[in-house]
Amino acid sequence: MRILLVDDEELSRNSIYDFLKVQLSLDVHEFDNVTSALTAYSEKPFDIIISDLKMPGIDGLEFLDRIKQMDSGKITDFILITGYGNIDSAIKALRSGAFDYLQKPLNIDELNEVIKRSMDHLSLLHENREFRTNLNRIVRTEKIKYKEKCQEIHNTYVELAGYGEIGIFSPHMNKIREQCEILYKDRNVPVLIDGETGTGKEIVARMVHTGNTVNKTPFIPLNCSAIPHSLFESELFGYDAGAFTDSKKTGNIGKFELANEGTLFLDEIGDLPPTLQAKLLRVIEEKEFFKLGGIKKVKVDVRIICATNKDLRKLVKEGKFRNDLYFRLNTANITLMPLSKRKDEILPLAEMFMNKFSRTKNKNFNSISPGAEEILKEYPWPGNIRELHNVVERIILLYDEENISEEHLGFLDDVISLSDLHTLFDPENIKLPEEKLDLKKLEREIVMKAMEKFDGNKSKAAEYLGLTRSALRSKF
After folding, report:
1. Protein fold of 164-337
2. In 19-162, which residue ranges form alpha helices assigned H by DSSP?
């Protein structure tokens, strides 16, 4: 603890010096004028300054003011002493920033008490300054961690929203990723995504919606094949109160309005009722529509992304799809190849799904055996990525080992590829296995493939198989 003592009265200064130096064993530096004291303080600041109030030249109050203007003065306690004390000078000294005010002749016990209180005060000041310094450092560190965490969340969001479920494991998918990032920049360009069922069309649509950013605007999907034609208009555009029997008294908001400022994803656009195709084209062009039963136009700013597993050109030629709507939707086109033509993606995708399900289901799988890899690569994957996803999930669910083996994939030998189903239903080309045929299992697999084909729509799957809904349910 360094103390600066300033007093022009030699006798008074010597007595205070002796008390602080001898009795309290403190490091004391004495001066008889403020000018010399200021020079010493500027060279190396002191913890405590004890100064006389009345001195020739620069007095104690001006000395105090100069010290408090320095940065180091904020952690220096200033104690004023005088033989001409009065209440006004005491108040002025304390308001100017003095720690305390003592009158001559000094009471040694009182001076000792003030020094002790000053030491405690300075200790708190230093602790507080150290805390603030550390706090600033901690805050800076936490800010960096926060930014890194935000980036990590951003990357995770982009992965989940766009890339994580399909993976960028081939030149084909890398090209599609680049296309998506380009298309993301212009919301006015409709995008048509075509490909077989299970190739990941919705996830590619989310990639267009997201780009390489965190897009907080809505992404509203609508499966055109899953909605009865009679309800499609109200589902797409919404309706006003009293628009039809049993309608809500408050009306209802349609998918177009929900997607405002975001993206409306129309899956299986080839199943859009012909009566609505003209209305959809008009909304795309004019960016406004009437709700069902409404008299007020609703204005929207919506990005349109469509997907189909059908040949829309063929539907146009057959008169089942409007030519002008097709060309408007096909302004930008993304075509997803089937997984059977992207064999370099099969193993990376299988590993990605394995790691995901092992983590979420708390299993130990961490590798795929060479034999299992061969089976995965050679299997035709008629259900594409969705089928691969389901196969891996099934294995992780039923078993708990370190690697996926050939035995785990044995059930694939009994699965009839959709590409071969036409021979099954051609009486002249039926090919039966040499060993026993499990007809119930075969029926169940066919039903499951039909359900996959129509994205879980039981009515369409039953119609496709020539069954009633109840008969379809009995096959599960």
Report:
1. Rossmann fold (3.40.50)
2. 34-43, 60-69, 87-95, 108-158
More confident residue, 214 or 389: 389
Contact 81, 104 (CB under 8 A): yes
Q: CB under 8 Å to 416, separation ≥6 — which residues? A: 424, 442, 445, 446
- Residues for the chain: how many in total? 476
Instruction: Provide CB contacts within 8 A for 143, sequence distance 6+.
Output: none
Right CATH number for 340-474 from 3.40.190.10, 1.10.8.60, 1.20.1050.40, 1.20.140.10?
A: 1.10.8.60
Cα–Cα–Cα angle for 4, 5, 6, rounded to 5 degrees = 120
Residue 105 CB burial class (10 angstroms; 0-12, 13-18, ≥19) = exposed
Tens-place pLDDT, residues 425-463: 544 445 565 566 677 777 887 888 888 777 778 888 888
Q: What pTM, to 2 d.p., does this model score? A: 0.55
The SS3 assignment for 76 reads coil
d(CA 13, CA 15): 6
